[in-house]
Write a structure and sequence with these properties.
By secondary structure, the protein is an alpha+beta fold. It has six helices and four strands; from the N terminus they run H-H-H-E-H-E-E-H-E-H. It has two domains: about 90 residues, Winged helix-like DNA-binding domain superfamily/Winged helix DNA-binding domain (Arc Repressor Mutant, subunit A); about 80 residues, Alpha-Beta Plaits (2-Layer Sandwich), CATH 3.30.70.920.
């Protein structure tokens, strides 16, 4: 089973130690990842070489990843579904591998509670969602039950994970 965020606590590797400057750099990059290291250094109160080394270390240790993020509805995905999945735990690894291979799935996580796995998936139509549920997901060995919740209106779509509001306010 592949772990997407291997540096996260509890996922097999020790988390990277981050100090206040690292947190400021991450918060600033989440606001504008296209800014230069010199502009970033001025914003966080450090030198350009220090910021460059810190950003390189954060990237190399997979603490951060610089990507373009767009809300699914803006990309033409009219259906965003949250799927609560109950499984036979003897098949967890095979189910994880199968879910990783499905491009419609944007997030998948093993959970505690009513569902064993929760998935976020994007589709262009309800027909695509229905076909996904009946023709692909239902064929994965070990999946016992799926509850599909369709997002009717996106209230919040944040991508600034891991930065506390107090750190953001210190910028």
């Amino acid at each position: 089973m592949k772990q997407v965020n291997e540096g996260e606590k509890g996922h097999g590797t020790a988390p990277v130690a981050l100090d206040a400057l690292d947190h400021k750099i991450i918060a600033a990059l989440q606001e504008d990842a296209r800014q230069t290291n010199a502009a970033l250094a001025a914003l966080v109160g450090s030198s350009e070489p220090t910021v460059r080394r810190r950003v390189d270390r954060l990237l190399a240790s997979q603490v951060i990843k610089i990507v373009a993020v767009a809300p699914p509805f803006q990309l033409g995905y009219d259906v965003v579904a949250i799927l609560g999945i109950q499984i036979d735990h003897r098949h967890l690894d095979e189910i994880s591998d199968a879910l990783l291979a499905l491009p419609e799935i944007r997030f998948a996580g093993v959970t505690l509670g009513s569902y064993d796995v929760v998935v976020e998936a994007w589709f262009h139509s309800t027909g695509e969602l229905l076909a996904f549920l009946h023709e692909r997901l239902s064929k994965i060995v070990g999946i016992q039950r799926v509850e599909s919740l369709q997002v009717a209106k996106m209230i919040k779509y944040a991508y600034d994970w891991g930065i506390q509001p107090s750190v953001r306010a210190e910028k």
